Amino acid sequence: MLSTAQTMIRLLYSQAELQWLDMTYLNSLFSLEGKTALVTGGATGIGRMMAEAMVRSGAKVMIASRKGEACKAVAEQLNAFGVSGNAEGFAGDLSSQEGLANLVEEVKSRTDKLHILANNAGATWGEEFEKFPRMAWDKIMNVNVTSIFELTRDLTPLLEAASSDDDPARVINTASVMGIVPIADGAYSYSVSKAAVIHLTKILANEFTKRRITVNAFAPGPFPSKMTAFATASEEGAANTGAMNPMGRIGRAEDIAAATLFLCGYGGSYVTGTVLPLDGGYAVSTGDAELFPDMG
Known about the structure:
By secondary structure, the chain is an alpha/beta fold. Helices cover 47% and strands 12% of the residues. The chain has a single domain (34-284), classed as 3-Layer(aba) Sandwich (Rossmann fold), CATH 3.40.50.720.
C-alpha cells in the first residue's frame, strides 16, 4: 500500500519522469562519469570485471598487464559497448623496478589526474611445503606486495590531483580470502602476500585520509580467472568448486562490478580501510569446506 508521500509523488510525476528520477539518484551514487582509472592485471579475471564495470559507468579506464596485446584487445571489446566510458590498453610489467617505472611514466603521459587506482595484478605459486622454493617466495611477495606499495607511492601525486574533500580519490587493492583464513593449499607465499596486502591497505588508509584518498581491498573467494582456471574453467569444475562454498557457487562478474562501483562511486566516499570479503561466506564459515576441491 502506498504512503501519502508516495501517492503525491505519483500524482506529480509521470512514470517516465519517475524512472528518470530513479536513474538520476542511482547515477549520483554510483556513476564514474568523467573519472580516470588504472586497473593493473586488467586483461583477465577480476581485473577485467572491474575494468568493464568502470567503463560501463562512464570512466576512462587504462588497462595494463604484462601482455600488452591482450590489454589492447580487451579495451577494444569494452569500447564496442558504445557507452560513455572508454578503455585503452597497454603493457605494464610490475615484476621489476624498471617495468614499474615504465608503467608510471606511461600513465603520466596519458593523464595528469587519477581518480581510481585498482591494484589488481598478482601471481601465485603452488608447491609442497618441503619443496617450496625461495625463488617462488621472493617472486610472489615482490609482485603481490612490493609492487602495490611502489605503484601506489609513485602514482600518489596523480591521485591527490584528482581528489577533493567531497569526492576523494580511490585505491582498491585485490587481496584474497586466503589472506584472511589460515589455509595455503600449497600456495604459501600467495596466502602470506595477500595477508600483507590487507595490512598494507589498512596502513595506507590511515595515512591517506589527510591526502583525501580512500584505500580499501577486495578479499575474493573463487572467481573465474586464469589463476583459478584449474578449478573453475570447466562447468564441472566451477560447479564442484561452488559446491564447497557456503553459498553454493563461485563468484560472478556482477559481484565484482557492484562492489567496484560502490567503493569508487560518490556513495563510497566515506569508506576507507575496509576489506570487502567477496567470498560467499567462506571467511566466516566454521565448516570443513575447502577453498578449492581436489581437481584430481
